[in-house]
Structure formats: structure tokens, C-alpha cells
Fold this sequence. Notes:
Blueprint: H1 2-21, H2 34-41, H3 48-53, H4 59-71, H5 79-93
Amino acid sequence: xxxxxxxxxxxxxxxxxxxxxxxxxxxxxxxxxxxxxxxxxxxxxxxxxxxxxxxxxxxxxxxxxxxxxxxxxxxxxxxxxxxxxxxxxxxxxxxx
Length: 96
């Protein structure tokens, strides 16, 4: 019975593993902290979300979004990294 549960869980979780492996569907613009942003953000979602939100968010919006990912969603991002990511996103994907 235990083996069936493990196999069932593996079948259910396979799409999540595939999703995480394809998390960089949009190549981020080169700049300071682009690699950090990719490394931290693509753990949970594709980079498509960055581009989709770029038409809406300014520096304050990106800061709030990154803070939400940390505080509400539990993203493993330090306060220093969050500030750097928000700055990168605002500079390269923010509404001016």
C-alpha cells in the first residue's frame, strides 16, 4: 500500500517538477542582479510573470510584490536580496 501512495504522489507531482525546470521561459534583461532575480523568482514561477506585471508595476509596486512573495508566499529571499530584486525589476521591468 505504501508503494502505491509513493507512485501516486510522484505522478501528481511530476507536472510541478516539469514546471520548475522550465521556469525561465523569458530570458531576463541583462543587468545587475538579473541572475539573482532569476534564481530566486523562478523557484516558484516562470519569468513570464515578470513580463506580464511589467506594464503595471513601478518601484513601489515591485517592492510590494517582492515583499508579498517573501511574507505571504514564503519565498526564501533575504531582506537584502528582496531590495536588490525589487530595484532590478523596477529598473528593467517597471512603469516609469
